[in-house]
Request: fold
Amino acid sequence: MDNGVKVFHLIAEPVKQVVIPGRTFDLWGFNGSAPGPTIQANEGDRVRILFDNHLPEPTGIHWHGLELPNDMDGVPGITQKLVMPGERFVYEFPLHQNGTFFYHPHMAMQEMVGLLGGFIIHPKTPYTPRVDKDFLIALQEYAVLPNRTMPNSMNMEFNWLTFNGKAGPATTPLVVKHGERVRIRIINLGMDHHPIHLHGFTFWVTGHEGAREAETMWLRGNTTLVGVAQARDIEFIADRTGEWMFHCHLPHHMMNQMSSNVGPMTRLGQGMQGGASMEAAMGMLRDGNATSENKAPSLGRGLGVGSTTGTATANGPLSQSAADKAMANMPGMDHSKMADHGNIPGMNMPALPKNADQVPLFPQDAYMEGPMMAMDKEVEKPETYGLPAGWSGFIGGMMTLVRVLPPEQYDKIMELKRGNAK
Ligand SMILES: [Cu+2]
Reply:
């Protein structure tokens, strides 16, 4: 506080963001992370934001949805001068709204590499009924091409989908006590609209990027489409215990690396492999000939109707041994777990039917989810306490859990969290 003004300090800077253990990306964020910290203030506050640009290029900060003086709107070249590298710009304005908002540079390519943060304005008159839990989830997506740590902001297809900067199973489950009323605020800044779905409950959509709606306006549902640049608030009463999925329902957004320009997945041995060396990727012949089994065609796809031998675009059927081989060659896979289809204590991968490879479309998920993708230990945190062994093999991308727990288990997790905080 400074003479009745709430003062915040935001630094835009390059950050190393662990999106999932083993994958640390070079992003641009605020105060050390992408997304940046959530600003919280009250309706009626006057706020001052000291903004330092530690990026190597000019920028500015736009306050998305706020009704403020034009010269505070943060649009470089229109409402203010560019904030040059090393410079500070001071934003100051009164808040007369309440609701869920966010901040980001008004520089489109910078928006795509992590620069986003939530801005919550609590109401002067408390919302009723009150909630016991109030979460904010920022939706962001990145296209990180093979052998890179930096997202390609020109891509239109994304292989890393994140909740608050983490891809499942590294996302943090929302832990609530049985019977609590829960609010989840969701903000989206990316290239895709995300249908966010909650299992087991019918929620109310109580807010659409602004003040909370009057109760008569609340829509009931279990999926809400959070469009690009939109915010949605949902509320529900957690009156049934259990592990309830909470996720974007676009199938490719429920997985990691689900993009045609990365990974060989089930197509190993045909076409151009993601992550191949320059020589291999360019189709330089080191062995065989241009139409040999393991080469043709070097460009992998898009060679026209006639190129049927090379259109390695559909899954299988691939022989089971070939699928095993494909998986064994995937970087980052734990091969020891693969050998017996999963080696997580308490969880066994059932054997697949012998003729699985005779069935068109096999395999789809057989080798893409489950024990061999599990990384329980690597993503362990208080909020994952007590989940079934191997759980992490079934959560990817924009996906986490709302854990509605009986008091004892809830208290145990809170105790673990306090222990971590010490
Ligand atoms: Cu999505």
User: Anything to note?
Assistant: The first strand starts at residue 5 and ends at 20. The pocket of copper (II) ion is lined by residues 161, 192, 194, 248, 250, 253, 398 (CB under 6 Å).
